[in-house]
Design goal:
- This protein folds into 3 domains: about 5-125, 2-Layer Sandwich (Beta-Lactamase), CATH 3.30.450; about 130-195; about 200-335, 2-Layer Sandwich (Heat Shock Protein 90), CATH 3.30.565.
- The chain has 10 helices and 10 strands.
- A 5-stranded antiparallel beta sheet has the order 2-1-5-4-3, sandwiched between helices. Strands 6-7-8-10-9 form a 5-stranded mixed beta sheet.
- The protein is elongated.
- A hairpin with a 5-residue loop joins strand 1 (about 30) and strand 2 (about 40).
- The protein has helices spanning about 5-15, 20-25, 45-50, 65-85, 130-165, 170-190, 205-215, 220, 235-255, 295-310; strands spanning about 30, 40, 85-95, 100-110, 115-125, 225-230, 265-275, 275-285, 315-320, 320-330.
- The chain is an alpha+beta fold and about 325 residues long.
Length: about 325
């Protein structure tokens, strides 16, 4: 008696052809010869595009892309053909209704016994609704960020107006305005970015970025926050998730940790070895710390930033002398 699903159904599986299997899939499936010329599309492709059977063979497939995406799609495809690397790209594909819908194109090479590429097999997946949701979230994020920055500007303006009524507080008001402006600059590192908004003119060194991020906190000027270690290059890819994480650490420290005490100190140490970067946040001199009983929203945000966005790890230790946070990421993740 057959003991496995495969044994029980092997006669049936042997009767199913590639075309039957591909036509049964919910995705658009295609294949090409080793040189990249398309010679097969499944039923889903023709249902989606409405193209006549066989009309997109050869190089005709490129006409199905949005005109703005055609050259980019060709460039990525040629690179895969030349290197044998997996093909993956998002583009707008013409639907049979006439509209262009976002699709995710992927392909892998099929290799022969001696390793040579004998065929490419790929899929196109309709991701239009997902892409629209992603774009809407990006718009909402930018709008929220814009309003927050406006709030910082309004607060700075109110401080300036109030200082005119109390000239004796002018020096304090100037310092407060400087702190509020610094919070606005720090917010630009900590907020989510889209592809359009991400490249900001921030510092290119990690320690300098952290110093600018923490500049709103008086403890930095007082020497109670120290930043030391190697000078590592960072761009918007690493700046945003790291900025979000350290903004959250500093905020919590002001509420509950070392920065809430007049003598409390925070030491940040940046080091690297063998392509790995370690960033330590070390608190001392503050009130006794206790491991929380639940995971707060801020902690979830830092996990998303470091683990999900940068593929790193973040470890927290609630020691008698204070909180210690160790972040480890690959150096290549700091920049594009």
């Amino acid at each position: 008696m057959p003991t496995t699903f495969q044994e029980a159904h092997s006669p049936l599986l042997g009767q199913i052809t590639f075309r039957q299997l591909a036509d049964a899939m919910p995705q658009m499936v295609w294949s090409t010869l080793p040189d990249g010329l398309h010679d097969y599309y499944n039923a889903r492709w023709y249902e989606f595009t409405g193209a006549p059977l066989g009309s997109t063979d050869g190089e005709g497939w490129n006409d199905m892309f949005h005109p703005e995406d055609q050259e980019r799609a060709w460039t990525v495809w040629r690179r895969s053909l030349a290197t044998g690397e997996p093909y993956e790209i998002e583009y707008r594909l013409r639907h049979h209704s006439g509209e262009y819908r976002w699709a995710l194109g992927r392909a892998l090479p099929v290799r022969g016994e001696e390793g040579q590429i004998v065929r490419w097999v790929g899929t196109c997946t309709d991701i239009h609704e997902h892409k629209q949701s992603e774009q809407m979230n990006a718009v909402l994020s930018r709008e929220l960020s814009h309003r927050i920055k406006n709030i910082f500007a309004v607060i700075g303006g109110i401080i300036g107006i109030s200082s005119r009524q109390f000239p004796q507080l002018e020096t304090l008001a100037t310092q407060l305005q400087s702190r509020v402006a610094a919070l606005g600059r720090a917010h630009d590192y900590a907020r989510p970015h889209s592809e359009d908004s991400a490249p900001h003119g921030g510092p290119s060194q990690l320690t300098e970025m952290l110093r600018q991020l923490l500049s709103p906190y008086p403890a930095l000027d007082e020497g109670r926050i120290t930043i030391e270690g190697e000078q590592l290059t960072v761009d918007d890819r690493g700046a945003t998730p790291i900025g979000l994480t350290f903004h959250e650490l500093a905020t919590n420290s002001m509420k509950y940790g070392a920065l809430s005490a007049s003598d409390g100190q925070v030491r940040i140490v940046v080091s690297s070895e063998d392509g790995n970067v370690t960033i330590e946040w070390i608190e001392t001199g503050g009130p006794p710390v206790v491991k929380p009983d639940f995971i707060g929203f801020g902690t979830e945000l830092t996990e998303i930033a470091i683990v999900a966005q940068l593929g790193g790890t973040i470890d927290r230790e609630w020691l008698p002398e204070g909180l210690r946070v160790t972040i480890r990421i690959l150096a290549e993740r700091l920049r594009r």
